[in-house]
Amino acid sequence: MAREPAQRELKQERAARTRMDILEAAIHLFARRGFLATTMADLSRAIRMTPGALYWHFPTKEDLLLAAIEELHQRCLRAFQLPGDDRERPAREQFQSICERTHLLLREHREYGIFFAMLAAEAADSNDQVAEAIRDKLALYVTTLERLIRHGQQMGEFRQDVDALAAAHSLLGGLLGMLVHQNLFRASVDYDPLYRAVMLIHQAGLVQATGFDCVNASQS
C-alpha cells in the first residue's frame, strides 16, 4: 500500500516534466514560426511525442498557447522582479534596475520578447482570447513603467510634458519591435548596440536632468 502514493507522486512528477518540455518546445516554435504556422504535429515531432500524448496534455493548440503565455509570463516576472510602489527610492534608480534586468534577460532569451511580439501581431485581429491574454500580461509591465515615470515626474527627475502612459507603451513596444527587427537582420545587426540605441532614445525623451544613463550597466 505504501508504494501506491509513491508511484502516484512519481507519475505526477513525470507528467509535470513532460508538460514543461512541451511548453518549452512551444515557446521556441511559436517564437520562430508564429502560432498560425506551427501545427500540433510540428510540436509532437519537436519533443518526440506521439500526437495522442500531446493532445492528452493540451486538447487544443490554443490551450497550449495560453499555457505557454502564462509560463513565459511567470519566467519574466521572476527575472524582472518588478518593483512595487516605492516612493522612497529615486525613480531613476528603479528605472535603471528595470533596464539592466531587461537587457540581461533579453540578451539571454530574445525568443521571449519575440514570442510576445509575434503572437500579439497575429492575434490582435484574429483571436480575441489570445489577444486578451497577451494584453493582460504586457499591461503589468506598462503599469509598472507608467508608475515609475509618474513618480519621476513628481520628484522632478523626469520631464513634466511627457505622457507617462504613452511613454510606457512606447518603451515596451519599442523593445518588442526591436527584437523582431534584430532577429530579421541578425546577420548584420547585433543585439547590444540596437538595445542601447532604443534605450538612449527613450531616455533622452524622459530625463529632466543630466547624468542619467540606464543602459551603461550590464555591457560586459
Architecture overview:
Helix 6 (110-123) crosses helix 8, helix 7 (128-154) crosses helix 8 and helix 8 packs antiparallel against helix 9 (191-206). The mean pLDDT is 85. This protein has helices spanning 3-33, 40-46, 51-57, 61-80, 91-108, 110-123, 128-154, 164-184, 191-206. Helices cover 73% and strands 0% of the residues. The radius of gyration is 20 Å and the shape is globular. With 220 residues, it is mainly α. The protein contains nine helices and no strands. GO terms for molecular function: DNA binding. This is HTH tetR-type domain-containing protein. Residues 39-58 bind DNA.
Condensed summary:
The protein is mainly alpha-helical and 220 residues long.
Mean pLDDT: 85
Provide the CATH architecture: Orthogonal Bundle
Task: Estimate the helix proportion, in percent.
Answer: over 70%
Number of strands: 0
Shape: globular
Poorly predicted ranges: none
Q: Could you name the CATH homologous superfamily?
A: Tetracycline Repressor, domain 2
Largest sheet: none
- Give the class-level CATH name: Mainly Alpha
**Treating each run of at least 4 consecutive H or I residues as one helix, how many helices?**
9
List the secondary-structure elements in sequence, H or E.
HHHHHHHHH
Protein name: HTH tetR-type domain-containing protein
Keywords: DNA-binding, Transcription, Transcription regulation
DNA-binding region: 39-58
Pfam families: TetR_C_13, TetR_N
